[in-house]
Design goal:
Layout: H1 4-8, E1 16-19, H2 27-36, E2 39-42, H3 48-51, H4 61-72, E3 76-83, H5 90-93, H6 99-117, E4 123-128, H7 141-146, H8 149-157, E5 167-174, H9 178-189, E6 196-202
Helix pairs in contact: 6-8
Amino acid sequence: TTTLRQAATPHGIVVSAAADSSHLSETNYAHVLGSEFSALEPENEMKFDAVEPSQDNFTYTGPDQLVAFAQAHSMFVRGHTLVWHQALPAWVTSGTFSIAELNGILLNHITKEVGHFATQVYAWDVVNEPFNGDGSLGPDVFYQAMGSGYIADALRTAPDGIDGLPTLVTAAATKARWGRASTNLTTRVRDGRGAWYSLHVTP
């Protein structure tokens, strides 16, 4: 029987799945993930709150296991996600940091996580869903402190020292308002690093 991965590869299509290291010990899960898909993306384990639960204390146990699995099965790994307002630890959102300190926290997190995985990750979702459904910038501790410029700062910092590493901004929008979201997204990443972007459109 031809697997999904085997059918897609001749056409240059990468078939990806969200994955969680806690399920890798399950035989069926591991078999399907490793045979049917050519790439994986950690569901939650590379997010800010999982990787840096307390300031400058980084933990990579889960994502390292996913990367090792991907390498053993000749799969790509897409990093998800460095900055997302719904996955920030309480020490960031509830801290009393100055603008300069918050900027340092943001760039330190990105630099260290990207540096840890280096070329083991082929692309990063750097900033995830920074916009509201109507295309306006949403509530985010970094946006509130630094304005929209934090997006470009994050994009410039993510690939530091790793030439050619694709970086992305993802955004969500309703179908009726996707045009405004797309326009605003293009404007915000223009000052970044030639980043790609993807738009999640819902009815």
